[in-house]
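Side project, low priority. Logging it here so it doesn't get lost.
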Amino acid sequence: MRARKKGFRQSGPPDAGSAAAPVLTGRTHLYGRRRRGSSFRRGQGSDVAPLSLSARDRGVREQQNAGAIVYNYHMGFYLTRQTALKWLETPSVYQIARDEVYELDDESFRFLSSCASDGGCDTRDSAFIDYCLDEGLLTREKVSLSRPPLRPSPNPSLRYLELQLTGRCNLRCRHCYLGNQQPRELTSGQIRSVLREFEEMQGLRVLLTGGEPLLHPQFEEINELLPDLFLRKVLFTNGVLLGGDLLKRLKVNEIQVSIDGMKDAHDMLRGAGAYDAALGAVRRALDAGFEVSVSTMVLPGNLKDFDAMEEQFRSLGIKDWTVDVPCPAGRLQENREFLVGPEQGGKYLGYGYGGGMHSAGTGYACGLHLMAVLPDGDAAKCTFYGDRPVGAVGEGLRTCWQRVKPLRLSSLDCRCEYLEACRGGCRYRAELLGRAAGRDLYRCSLYGVRSPGA
């Protein structure tokens, strides 16, 4: 076994028959910024010399026993409660609390599998053990949990699930892409089934969204399902209902609050008092010990606020700040004064920090590992494509996922040097701006790429 810290790397479907060197790779997953689960938490972008475990240093004889490797007779280490083995394209281990994924070689995967047993595990490779202890993967405290079965994931794997619990909302934001549709919501039984199947498919992160998810009439029941899942749970909210009593009961790892500018800009978009409610929710959530992220849309009324927002979010201790441009859909079609053009708005996509909520892979456009489940039970490649579902959750999540076709960057009209970093931008937005294989002109503006004919 050996451990190697790696910078952020996104991986597409592996070549058949490829053999990886023995390695535990740090933080390989989730997105672009230091993306959670995607880039290594410390020393991002740098490699260090591998830590090797030789047969002589091991000092014990490996024994094959019922398909598992026993490293010696003195078991002393256990997977932590926040660690889950995941059989992705490459066998991996996921530190849920830190949102980090580590690729494993076969030997490390078998060893850490033995650490998930009631008897625990041990090895004299002290460097490897110290590394796993430092990263929060192993503990000396005895841990006995019922863990989900390890089965190979689909290829590509479904790692991130947008789960729209309900279409209900307590605000009428003037830019909402959902528009004025009749509110619908998933039943608690559907939600339970989807979450269990997502976990069995080796999923990593579930994004609990809406509408306003806290308005689901069975939210308390849904909340009680969450602790038993070996997934990272992220709640998306406008913050209005996020009071102290609810925070004491909430069973999620992270809370993301929408803040679209300083007070005047935010309230103009979402309604009087919305900014104070959102900022108060952020502070209460931080005080309660939650990791908090913020999402912001680029709009004509908040362009002057971005420096102030960044200073405020960093001083508060916001972990991630995601900045995007809204798509001209839903209510934004009725409120076109809130639209900002590519040349102006694209530059603001350079704001934000952290890792984002889902990643792609080398050679692939946005959404390689992402799918959405909508409040009516339909499944789509993401929430924007809700009018083009790939199936319904009654057919099974895996069945729906197999109908989502990965989009290669080579199929796009994009040829600039920033293509791998940009990943073709938002494909839904590009389609609205021209055609499905066309350019996301907002991303082109960010990178200073001139559009054809400009």
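Brief comment: Residues 347 and 446 are 5 Å apart (CA to CA).
Revisit when time allows.
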